[in-house]
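Example 4.3 (complexes with small molecules)
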Amino acid sequence: MSKVYITTPIYYPNSDPHVGTAYTTIVADFLARYYRQRGKTVFYLTGTDENSVKVEEAAQKLNKPTKQYVDEMASIFREIWQKLNISYDKFIRTTDDYHIQTAQFVFQKLYEKGYIYKSYYEGWYCNSCETFWPSSKLGDEKVCPNIECRKPLTIVKEDNYFFKLSDFQEKLIKYYEQNPDSIFPKTRYNEVLSFIKMGLQDISVSRKNIEWGIKVPFDPNYTIYVWIDALTNYISGIGYPYNFEEEYWQNVYHIMGKDIIRFHAVIWPSILLALGLEPPKKLIVHGWLTTPENKKISKSTGGDIFKLREFISNNPEHMIMGLRYYLLKEGSFGEDIPISVERYVQIYNSDLANNVGNLLSRIVALIQKNLESKVYKKSSLEFIPTLYSQVLKEYNKYVENFEFSKAMDIIIDFSNHLNKKIEENRPWEMKNQKDKLNDLMFELCLGLVGIFTFLYPAIPYSSYQALNQLGLEKILDKASFNVSDLYLDGIESFEIRSRQVLFPAIK
Ligand code: MSP
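Answer. The structure with 5'-O-[(L-methionyl)-sulphamoyl]adenosine bound is encoded below.
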């Protein structure tokens, strides 16, 4: 299948993006770029979830009309994603007309098919988590049972529209049993399956007398429950219903944090089945970024220790690329990952400044000094083809298993290997053996091309800069560049264009 569809959750724009939301977006970007490099046609969707009570409240606090506020916030998200080199193909906003039409179409269709019915609801609602809580789940204090939230709840007593989630229990069990790879990691898959087996109840899918939101098409006293509206972004973003790009849908990867898995693994596939569509092919679920004391980083709790917006505005590109690299390298994807600015500096210096950056400088300097900035393919290659294909195989295996940290490690090993080749061959003593020096440098340059094409999905801007010094950045432009053919058909020479320190050390 040549098409791949990658999504992030759409974020509530009630405050600036922080390092946690950036994490999901960076992982999704890494995968989008990885698949593009392997010749896939990728559609990467991200955006903002705007029809939420807490977004409206945030606007009111600032005395701004809600629409003006969400317009401003959507621009801030876009700006930050741009600085982080996020290569999304579309930025969806749930206040966009086409999305509103799709959300209403979906609601209407579910109603016509008999999956939505009206009934009385009495219970509690958390504006912050946008979640209905039945009284049975609460203690005396009537605060949100989500331990990360614990905010006071609002009582809801109203006629409401319900979705027949209970109808899908058996279908979902069957689907998940037949598709054991549909959720990564396995622990989350097991969790979802046992949750479904415990029994599914119908859920409320509307709110009464709430102004901000998408109207229920056949009953304007109601708005569509924001999670139903938000989940449909994944199909409105690719043209559902009238211009639906089904091939993307068949190959969708939803990337998200563990906090919202049930919405995606239980409610969303049920809605899709009710519409006559396939459940998402794969849910890729990561843990939380936490403070070193293991507190979730969020707007309300742990605080954004990177102060993302300031970090992005006050630092140059190589440090922003360093942040992308650090988040992919640290910890084990899928589990909670404690992060800190100290660790960021440590990893930036050891892997980027002192390792790959230094390797590039050494090679470029030797070629400038001793070979008048040019190297050619003269004799047959000695060590690079074998080394390259070994690294490629391992690297691909790790990425396909979402082991991003190990994928970064293998690139650093590759770089260590090339540094060792330099130590062993002592090119600075080859001034009078130009051919030998040329051959060694040619292979080392191919090694650099390997390193920076592998690093490209993690640190696009810096990889481009690195290959630009070797006169070969065009390699990264090719939309369907086939990584495995690199050394077989391609490069005949290198001409050094410039020499700049790619990753100045952080003191
Ligand atoms: N609007 C909903 C999602 C609707 S998708 C149909 C929402 N938005 S959110 O702004 O709260 O973003 C939640 C997502 O942000 C999480 O699922 C996760 O991907 C990311 N993260 C937020 N805090 C995070 C961490 N501390 N660590 C890692 N990811 C974090 O829920």
